[in-house]
Amino acid sequence: MNRLGYILKSAREDNDLTQIQVMRLTGINNKTLSGYENSLAEPDIDTLVTLFKLYGLSFDKAFGIDTDSAKAPPDPLKKRWDDAFEAIPFEKRSDTLNIVETMIKLMETVA
């Protein structure tokens, strides 16, 4: 298992999720997810972002990138978003992300 597969499997297990639950939350087939976790396939970037968001992972922490030296001051709105997102039950997070992404796209067309 390569590092990405290990990270994905560990993160899913750390969140007490089964592959079936992840499939229900994200629409990613559990056999496809198994392929990612066992390094038989690699997710595209959009799928990877979806999984990282679901698992509450950041790319820098997952891959051991030290960002402390170039860290921007904390964003209070990001903290509020993170806290609100954490309060959403796992089964509703995918729907929430879809709504937010749709709103962002609509705002971009208006701007």
Task: Describe what this molecule looks like in 3D.
- The chain is mostly helical and 111 residues long.
- 68% of the residues lie in helices and 0% in strands.
- It contains 7 helices and no strands.
- It has helices spanning 3-14, 19-26, 30-37, 45-55, 59-62, 76-87, 90-110.
- Helix 1 (3-14) crosses helix 3 (30-37) and helix 2 crosses helix 3 (30-37).
- The longest helix has 21 residues, at 90-110.
- The chain starts with a helix and ends with a helix.
- The model has no long low-confidence stretch (mean pLDDT 85).
Shape: globular
Order of helices and strands: HHHHHHH
Overall mean pLDDT stands at 85
The number of helices is 7
Amount of helix: 55-70%
Unreliable residue stretches: none
Report the β-strand fraction as a percent range: under 5%
N-C termini distance:
45 Å
Secondary structural class: mainly alpha
Radius of gyration, whole Å: 15 Å
> Main beta sheet: strand number and arrangement?
none
